[in-house]
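Meet my pick.
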Amino acid sequence: KVAIKGIERELVCPACKELFTHPLILPCQHNVCHKCVKEILFAFEDSFADGGSESSNQSSPRIRISASSMDRIDRISRSGRKRNSLTPRSTLFPCPGCQRDIDLGERGINGLFRNLTLETIVERYRQAARAAIAIMCDFCKPPPQESTKSCMDCSASYCNECFKIHHPWGTLKAQHEYVGPTTNFRPKILMCPEHEMERVNMYCEICRRPVCHLCKLGGCHANHRVTTMSTAYKTLKEKLSKDIEYLISKESQVKAHITQLDLLLKETECNSERAKQEASQSFEKLYHVLEEKKSAALRAIDTSKNIRLEKLQTQVEEYQGLLENNGLVGYAQEVLKETDPSCFVQTAKQLHVRIQKATESLKTFRPAAETTFEDFVVDIAKQEDILGDLSFHSNGLEIPEINEKQSRMYNKALISWECPGKADSADIYVLEYHKLNREEENVTWQNIEVCGKSKVVSDLDDDSSYAFRVRGYKGSICSPWSREVILRTPPAPVFSFLFDDKCGYNNERLQLDPGRTSVESRAGFPLLLGSERLLVGCYTTLDYIIGDTGIAKGKHFWAFRVEAYSYLVKVGVVPSNKIQKLFHSTHDVTSPRYEQDSGHDSGSEDAFFDSSQPCTLVTLGMKKFFIPTTPAAPKDPASRILPLPSCLGICLDCDRGRVGFYDAGCMKCLYECEVDCSGIMYPAFALMGGAAVHLEEAVIEKYSEYDDDI
């Protein structure tokens, strides 16, 4: 015999908070007492006539409609629905279990099934709770005797003598079904609520409810997929049995989780007290300024503690329900005792879903609340003039996140952030940053108040890493700090220039945008005419373009982006005394024997290549970055091929005679070499086939001033 004293939570009506009485199954698979359904519907309907007044909520002392349910009633009453409409309408019911408006259809409460299995389990629980109270015979003359059996056909209880009198041998009554003493008399056959004279004999897999053959032939289930009741009974019972066996086999794991949760409860209590003490000590040191905020801080800690304790306690109760003979498992074990397929199927489907959810929760156990109170540590290092803004972190405000894709570092830093949710957005943000320096022990953050969600930060040191973080404020409440994002500044001041549209510019095969910040090679008809004159095995020329501004001294950096579809692009620098050679090279059309990687092993190719190059360039193309062949370069060709960064940078140091090629996203140097800086140096680019290059735009203040308003 299975004890059922641990399943009380499963047998309580969500409306009246008492044991179920004639429970009905709603379309959402929740159960509600028959009387509670009628009372809620009466209050629901009265709200349309009373305008959703609070007086309708007091009509029944048995139930209390929640504020959220009343809000839904007001919303529906304001939507224009009228009573006594001549057009057919469905009945909406505010389910107290899931807090959703459930459509009961045109039949309303008359279309709901009575949960006979749950009713039987409730009656067993009542009998277990009142084992000392006997059920008396309904037919004895006073004083009545204690009943020994109950007739399910007569819906009455009898003592032995009265049962013989009212069920004599040889009559039809002698064939009635009788059980032990009970007050729960349910019908022997589950009838269809749509067709009251028909018994249910099929199960609709779409609506997940028992139906009769008339529902399948011409009713609302005509086009639905159905199965026989015996098949549904067998399938659901097998699934439910397997899941219950799994939960029972994990009883030791459940107990371990409960033990862990008990420890977390104690730890939460201890940590909350410790946090309160630390907060009290901090406020005592600044008593004259913070006295008014002290009580608010302690209340915040207690509120957080209560929320966490409530979550953890609820989690403990949920896991206790997974123990054998307790809660959900105990309820499921009682359901398995049901032998009537129709009654079992209508109860087991929703129960099986809950069992599956409980099974999943065992696989990924996670405490419902954190035990630490680090967010409530008060910072007393600030000066007294800013103590008025001192507050705890609030869980009500979303933690902003710095968007690393939209943020960038160039001549200035553009920092953009966003909030995961839109609710309770902050009124103002504070952006803080500091330079990363290993020698400094105490970090000093610089802060900027921002009304929008982006900010341009200037006056940053070159070739340095900075950490950025942001938090939101709404009144005196602030969110926790965002995750710190580290960005590195360019290795030198940013050099600004445009593409030169005069010196050597080939407008037949290159196309500049009006602002001269983008160039694209056009492999059109002129290229075809040029290719017609070439011998087999020869290659066409590169189309060069340079910057309109030169560099005579100092260290400078510029960045650009190469389109991913680009076939071949070369980038680098060229001295002024070799520009003419660049645009009028005799090797515009070359044969493979002159190429650096022609396959000959004589070594003459490298010597010819080095001496003939008028400028220092690296090759890009097909989403790759190719490190030039030098004595110091890796001999393995595969190790010289790197993925093409989304943004490339070039740093030219005229004083040292060095040029470096960088991944401008993280300011990492990919390749560096010596360069002859005897003349004025110009940025140089070469394109062949389909290719495009875009100069990086400078960061200006308009990004932060106008983006949010737009």
